Automatic annotation (TrEMBL), chain A:
Keywords assigned by UniProt, alphabetized: Membrane, Transmembrane, Transmembrane helix, Transport
InterPro entries: Na/Glc_symporter_sf, Na/solute_symporter, Sodium:Solute_Symporter
Subcellular localization, as worded in the UniProt entry: Membrane
Origin species: Lentzea flava
Region (Disordered): 524-544
Entry membrane topology: Multi-pass membrane protein
Family statement: Belongs to the sodium:solute symporter (SSF) (TC 2.A.21) family.
Transmembrane parts of this sequence: 6-24, 45-65, 71-97, 123-141, 161-179, 191-210, 246-269, 281-301, 333-362, 383-401, 407-428, 435-454, 491-512
Record's compositionally biased regions (Basic and acidic residues): 527-537
Protein name: Solute:Na+ symporter, SSS family protein
NCBIfam families (UniProt xref): monocarbox_MctP
TrEMBL record, chain B:
Organism encoding this protein: Lentzea flava
Official protein name in the record: DUF3311 domain-containing protein
Pfam families with a match to the protein in the record: DUF3311 (PF11755)
InterPro entries linked: DUF3311
Keywords: Membrane, Transmembrane, Transmembrane helix
Organism classification: Bacteria, Bacillati, Actinomycetota, Actinomycetes, Pseudonocardiales
Chain ranges passing through the membrane: 12-30, 42-63
Amino acid sequence: MQWTELIVFSALFLLVTVMGFVAARWQKGETLDHLDEWGLGGRKFGSWITWFLVGGDLYTAYTFVAVPALMFGAGATGFFALPYTVILYPIVFLPLVRMWSVSRVHGYVTPADFVKGRYGSHWLALLIAITGIVATMPYIALQLVGLEAVLRSMGLNGGGILGHLPLFIAFVILALYTYQSGLRAPALIAFVKDILIYLVILVAIVYLPAKFGGWGEIFNDAQAKFDATQSKTDGILLTGTNQLQYATLALGSALALFLYPHSLTGILASRGRNVIKRNMVALPAYSLVLGLLALLGYVAISAGTKPIVNQATGRPDTNTIVPELFGHNFPSWFAGIAFAAIGIGALVPAAIMSIAAANLWTRNVYKEYIHKHATPAQEAKQAKIASLVVKFGAVAFIVFVDPQFSIDLQLIGGVMILQTLPAVAIALYTRWFHVYGLVAGWVAGMGYGMWLLYNIGNPAVNKAHFAGSALPLGKISIFGWHPFGASTTQIYVGIVALFVNLLVAVIVTLIAKRAKAFNGTDQTDPSDYHVDEDSPRVKPVATH
Amino acid sequence: MPSDPKTGLRWSNWNLLLIVPLLMLITPWFNMDEPRIFGLPFFYWYQFAFVPLGVLCVGLVYVKTKDKPVVTGKPDKLGVDDLDEGAK
């Protein structure tokens, strides 16, 4: 047991716990019994709060442990996280402000709310809501994987169910203050999280390379390690077969990120269009940190860091690479701060994700199908309870099912959420797609994507299915015809599935239009998409 | 500024700058070790250089399109009921 680390960690954890409960009173509105308040923090966060909130939301603890672990294991392919988070902002800059405006005019809380307003179809909205919930659940579970990596590095590495007890305690606390304070809790805690993360990364990036002979030496060590392995796809540079995979994974991830309900929650909680635009300029500061952090995977190679064996599963857990690197090379008290940074880094996104999933459940399932005349207060109550269910579901996932399953599911989740792009993102610009086309495209893209993922195996780790998202082009077949021959060039499955989705959506749309099928009623007006905070047309916050 | 009140789309040529950061997806341009800077292979520092470039592009678009009028096209004078009538 590493007592110094544990005490520093616990002290910081206690601090954010207090903040989490106090947050309920921070920038308080008239009432917390409304989704605008509980689920969106009153829709009034300014540039700074949004920066910390969205930054804390997008750059999660799992990213912070998994990306360096990927670099450690596979090399350059893991660096896709940098291009992903650089191209992200130019891509979403224009659509996001439109989404904010239309949501502000009509009081939309979730992406599925928008789809329902745009197409007048609660079935399409249900499809989007379910996709969002299913894709978000494993994401929450992964935050626990990040948190547990830290706890186990501190010596809380017990076996069996009892070994998960520290994780369970941390999550009960998180669940309680999220229940009470809603989105204000992660918004306030994000300040602590991000300051700690920046502090730790800056120190690590200056101190560690100097300790191991400088960056040149570190890259040479990494190259030597990858040269010694059997695999032909690892190395400090990309290879002939994985360059397309690198680019399409970065692009697909960037397209997918703001389709996740939790990312949109942070955006809808902001005060106005300029807040969002300023954040699109300022958020890449986190990308810089993420890129530097990724390189720590190579530093761990030079340092000879060994992943610790997870006593619950009996396997080495590569996600412990970064915690172990910090634990062995920093003084105990600083390692404690670093662990707290990652640990608290898990709480912020987990809270926002559970709120987003709860909003989806409440708005697009509960209010739509179970209790049509729910009052705003009943909605808020329902969402609070749903957030508890979602969190404990995630804990149960980690405790009773192999954590590897969550990682697989997260991979699937990315491909799934990408299939909502035509209905959510393209619909912001045009209603050209017919609602039948969108549903058919969703079914086709989802089905084909899942089938492709299912068939990706990796004999090296003894997995026959769901072993990754890199698909050799040669495996793509259209009823037995292989358009790319036996090519071994890899591509990201999500992009292939999205292509199929769009293709089917276009074809079915053309048919539906020819048949003059009814395409739903559009509740929105073209001018809604440009309304700003000072307009008289914005819907008052937290009224019915 | 060209705009189409029917579709509600607004366009500024500055928006084209948003395409520039996407150039970092062309991997053959930078998938090499040399030249290194501070020991970082070209592959890595080239991509790091895109972070400030991306900020610059998005920042320029923000500043240059900021003072445009918020609502274009015809002013919205219709009440909710009128709009309902119009939809028929």
